[in-house]
Amino acid sequence: MRGWTGAAAGATGFRVASKGKDEAEPKRLNRAVGVSDALKGVLDSALKKRGFATRDLLANWTAMAPKPYDGLAVPDQLKWPRGAGHEGATLYLRCAPGHALAIAHEGALIAAAVNRYFGYYLVREVKLSAEPFTATSPKPAAPRGPSPEAKASASRAVAAVDDPGLKEALAGLGEALLSRKRQG
Fold first, then answer.
1. How many domains does the structure of the chain reveal?
2. Is residue 88 within 8 Å of residue 116, measured between CB atoms?
3. Domain for residue 1, yes or no?
4. Distance (Å, rounded) from C-alpha 126 to C-alpha 148?
5. CB–CB of 99/65 below 8 Å?
6. Which of 5, 51, 87, 96 has the CB geometry, 3.0–4.6 Å to 78, for a possible disulfide?
């Protein structure tokens, strides 16, 4: 063959140079981006497979679900009936072991709370999912204050300082360091 080089051959026998369909390069933002923004496309496509149009139901579950079900159950799937439009989906919940019966009986209450949060009729009924429940990690315990011995030792160490602001700051630092030694 004579002429150009490329992937496709023209009708005249010349090889025609053609641009291949290269994948588009990801858009560069030239700035720092939060993790939620960076993963938005990945998460949204995964959530759409589970029936969620947006992340709102998962992200705000603790705000919309009635107590104590906000910590005992998490949304798993949102299934829409065929041809029913956008109203009246079935919400499938993963629940903690031992609480399935209570959640099954309070399904109407949970559905009403979700509908109230969104402001329209979204959930028709609540059913339990067969998927296992994974509880969120417990919140760390509130840090304890320094012991009386640490407070006394820190106040003795800064007794000679004249400036009251500096004295208070150094005493707080000493208490923190002494209580840290005690824990570690």
1. 2
2. no
3. no
4. 53
5. no
6. 51
Q: Note the pLDDT of residue 108.
A: 93
CATH code (residue 49): 3.30.300
Q: What is the pLDDT of residue 31?
A: 76
How far is 125 from 77, CA to CA, in rounded Å? Answer: 12
CB 101 within 8 A of CB 121: no
Q: Which of 36, 37, 58, 38 minimizes the C-alpha distance to 47?
A: 58
Summarize the confidence of residues 83-89 as an average pLDDT.
71
Enter the pTM of the model: 0.50
Residues 43 and 121 in one domain: yes
| Residue 109 predicted with pLDDT over 90 | yes
**What is the extent of the structural domain holding 172?**
148-183
* CA dist., res. 63 & res. 147, Å (int): 37
